[in-house]
Design brief:
This protein is mainly alpha-helical. It has a single domain, classed as Rhodopsin 7-helix transmembrane proteins (Rhopdopsin 7-helix transmembrane proteins, Up-down Bundle). Helix content is 76%, strand content 3%. The protein has helices spanning 21-51, 58-86, 94-127, 129-135, 138-164, 181-185, 193-226, 231-239, 242-260, 266-292, 295-307; strands spanning 11-14, 91-93, 173-174. It has a 3-stranded mixed sheet with strand order 2-1-3. Helix 3 runs antiparallel to helix 5 (138-164). The N and C termini lie far apart (54 Å).
Length: 309
């Protein structure tokens, strides 16, 4: 690097999973399969809901937003991960790293907000069924969806802007397979106190507050379902929210582990595995979770698949 550039890192090296060629080949196949499943599965969800008038309800409107977020999130990470597994050198430019950080943080934050909106929708449907049609109107649903995307985008813009003002003068090895705020802060040679404060504020809002709101919604849902006398009514009520609850548990478990536990030692290695859960495994599993127990979506998918042949 030229003398004039000794104080500025132009690219970062990403730490992969293994240097073993056979294991790298196996991981490449696994991640490619997960990526294809996520793309195909979530695209089918979007197509099925869009083409089936019977699914034009608030619940499936939010499900389409979730599918779009899953496609965007996995597409932000997995192509670069796959490239790093097959290329001799796994590097990413400074601008490319900030771009990946921006979009990944945007989509992760939006998904947390969206899960809260979906929990509120299920609360209204089960606990306030007589007011559901009035409260969950299309203008309100559209406003909620727009708020989810915009609030997360604004928060991410602030974090990315604060990250861009930092100086990186070496080392340039990111101990992760992607660019995230916590791992990048470890490499900065500038004061990061303001960044750390903003991270805490974002973690409290996106993680703690939204988790508590989701938990409160499901607490009310469980209490309401338990008051239903018939067993068939209880099963029907639980079936409408069990899939979403499973997605919430899987997603929050991975995100909380990543952003609330120290990123050093063995936890850093475990963090890579956990990051795979919310960037690859969760986007691939969500379409299966939402369709295996949903007769309406399965029926709509059967209409979409033959028409695409």
């Amino acid at each position: 690097m030229a003398a004039a550039n000794q104080t500025a890192v132009l690219e970062f090296s990403l730490q992969g999973f293994s240097e073993d060629p056979q294991l790298r080949g196996l991981l490449s196949t696994l991640f490619l399969l997960l990526y294809l499943v996520a793309l195909v599965g979530n695209s089918l969800i979007v197509a099925a809901v869009s083409l089936s008038s019977g699914l034009h309800t608030p619940m499936y409107f939010f499900l389409v937003n979730l599918a779009i977020l899953d496609i965007a999130c996995t597409s932000t990470v997995l192509p670069k991960l796959l490239q790093g597994l097959v290329a001799p050198a796994n590097t990413i430019s400074y601008r490319g790293c900030l771009a990946q950080l921006f979009f990944l943080t945007w989509f992760l934050g939006a998904e947390l907000l969206l899960l809260t909106a979906m929990a509120f929708d299920r609360y209204m449907a089960i606990c306030r069924p007589l007011h559901y049609g009035t409260m969950m109107s299309w203008p309100l649903c559209t406003l909620l969806a727009m708020t989810v995307w915009m609030v997360s985008a604004i928060s991410t813009s602030v974090h990315t802007g604060l990250m861009a003002r930092l100086t990186f003068c070496g080392p340039n090895l990111i101990q992760h397979f992607l660019c995230e705020i916590p791992t990048l802060l470890l490499l900065s040679c500038s004061p990061t106190a303001l960044n750390s404060v903003m991270i805490v504020i974002a973690d409290v809002y996106f993680g703690v507050v939204n988790f508590l709101l989701t938990l409160a919604s499901y607490g009310c849902i469980v209490a309401s379902v338990l008051r239903i006398r018939s067993a068939a009514g209880k099963r029907r009520a639980f079936s409408t929210c069990s899939s979403h609850l499973l997605v919430v548990i899987l997603y929050y478990s991975a995100v909380i582990y990543t952003y609330f536990l120290p990123g050093s030692g063995t936890s850093m290695e475990n963090g890579k595995v956990v990051a795979v859960l919310y960037t690859a495994v969760s986007p691939a599993l969500n379409p299966l979770i939402y369709t295996l127990r949903n007769k309406d979506v399965k029926a709509a998918l059967w209409k979409v698949v033959p028409s695409s042949k």
